[in-house]
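INTERNAL TRANSFER SHEET
From: sequence group
To: structure group
Subject: Nose resistant-to-fluoxetine protein N-terminal domain-containing protein

Please process the attached sequence and return the structure record in the designated field. Keep the field labels unchanged so the import script can parse them.
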Amino acid sequence: MELMELMVRTLGLLSLMGVAKGAINQSNTASQLQWQLQQQQLQQQQQQQQQQKLKFSIDFPSIVDDFYEPHLTRTSVIFGLTKVVNASQVNAQCKAHLRQVQRGILSKQPWAMKVLDASGTKPSGFVYGQNYWLGSREACKGVQRPVGITLSKNFDRVMHQGLITQLAPFDMDYRVLYLRHNSPWQVEIKLMSEQIIHIGLCLPSSCSSSEVQQLAAEYVGRGMFAESDIYDIRPEVLYMKDLQLSESFYQRTSFRLLVSCVLITAALMLCAQQLLAVKKLPSSGEDLGLAPAESELWRALHSLLRLQRLRQLVSCYDVPANWSRIFAIRESTPQEIPIMNGLRSVCAIWIMIFHVVWFMYFTVHNKIVLISYAEQAFFQYVSSAPLLVDVFFTISGFLQTYNFLRNSAQLEAVRQNGWQQNLKLFGKLLFHRYLRLGPLYLVVMALVDLVYAYIGDTSVYHINERFDEMCSSHWWRNLLFIQNLFDHRDMCANWSWSLACEMQFFILANVLLFLYAKHPRLTKTLVATALLSTIAWTYGIGVRIKFQLSFDAAFATGTEIYTSPFVRVLPYILGAITAWSLLELRPQLMMGELRERCSWHLALLVFFACIYSTIRRDLGPLLAISLFVLGRLSFSLSVCWMIVGSAQGRGVWWSRLLEAKGFQHLSRLSYAIYLLNPLVIAFFYSLTNASTHADPFMLCVVTCGFAVIVYLTSILFSLAFELPYSNLSSILLRRSQKCLKDA
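Return from structure group:
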């Protein structure tokens, strides 16, 4: 029994051990299965991640769709264009390239990120006139070729390794899209084109500008642009620039004329140098070892230069002689009025400073701040600088009358001549006036046409005043000096209006002076009538157009007030009356020393009081036009007193400064400075690739730089296109006087 029980227990134990072992085996099998299942799940997850990555690079993941794409579409114009390209009619290559840009941006490829970064988006400052969303032209170039910069490998950098070296897989170029906005959330000054948004875009070269315009119109038309909703911009696509010079540039008439003028002038200058060399040659006329062909050319030129009239013409272009004439400084003669040199020089530089600020307005991104500076007391000397044109009119009127009445021989000839002879003399005087002013003036007009055609194609800025178009259409107005008789918005080089006025005043003054030689009392009555008429005319026009002193109103009324010869003749008449008074009433103008010194200081006080009289610009029309008329009248009278005092050899410390000899040099360049400074300033501003910031300190630095550039340019142009013709005019006058004496 015990044995049986032992066997039963043993069998039970063995069975239990078997069960336990089976359980253990089953447990091990389950663990293996679970581990295998986990491995399979892990592999599946890895495969899914790889598929998601692959899908991200091709079809974009949903997370990017939810966060990045809507944001980029609404804020970035370049990305928005890639979104609307699918439904557009652009060429297949352009469409493929824009899609590739889109994929590159979403996958954060370095070249595509540079494209995104180089393209413009809205910066801050929109309310105050920030319409230049230009991005970076240089950064777009960096997509095409690596930036030339060397970085040490000794330092760890967080930047992406391909940020500098990775290039776009196709050609890209920088272009500018121009939109007109109608946002009520930007201060509107009403000075030309401040409502034009400039958007710089880094685009595939395969997309034409017309296709990009089409895409942009579709993009803004769908309301996808976030800024349109936030600031109620309601943009309208105007046009696009590829910033490339058009092929027609070299076919322009102005280009051919300018090249011809330069070549002819250079040839005449070389001939003038040859003439000097001929004078230094020995009388034997040796060939100096020249080759046969050169020797024949030398002899031919030498024989031509033997002609007296040709030698006189060529000698007008003598560069060393003209250079010496520009820089000559000498003692003033008793017949000269030295303060005129200082007035001309200071006013020419002063007007140039105004033009630096004026042309900055078209590139500055805080326009309101710039205008606010102009209305501050400290900057009145800049904002009121256009008044200084009256200084030139006063001096011109004075000199025209003074020189005519002082020339007793000519005055007597006019009295004795019949109307036909006087008509010939009048024509001769007009010819010499045109000969002195015309060549430089016409060369600058051609250069204006050429420069504005160039910047119209290549500048990132919208050029509102397309002088190239105006000059091509209305060149004959400038040729006849009548451009100021038309709308100031249609002028070729609108700063030349004063030259047209001066030529018209010159003709009018000569008519009156010829009449004065025969009928002095009638002429005095006519001059007094003209003086009262211009004052009454100005009042009438000012009241009719509701004239105001604010900048927007002053610009809008430029044709009626600013450039009108009927308004601007006032200082010319006052200058002429002053010259007549000085010659006819010189003994009565004597006064005591104390009274004279007080008069000098009073003249200076009136001068600056008129400059600062417009510090309040919110006046009513009647008060504004009264201040305008009385201010210009007082201003011109103060200048007249300075001229009279200097003519009599009197003065105070500050007038002695204006009479300094150094101003003789600048005075000779004042005509060239006046003509050239707007063109030079506009050209250099247009070459910048980023908008400027109105800052007083930097404005001073920029002004100094422009002063140097304008000064050097004026010397060059005066040597080539002003002094030679002034010399020629003098030669012709001397010849005519000699013929008159012989007769």
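Handover comment: The first strand starts at residue 132 and ends at 133. Residues 13-17, 19-28, 53-65 have pLDDT under 50 and may be disordered.
Transfer complete.
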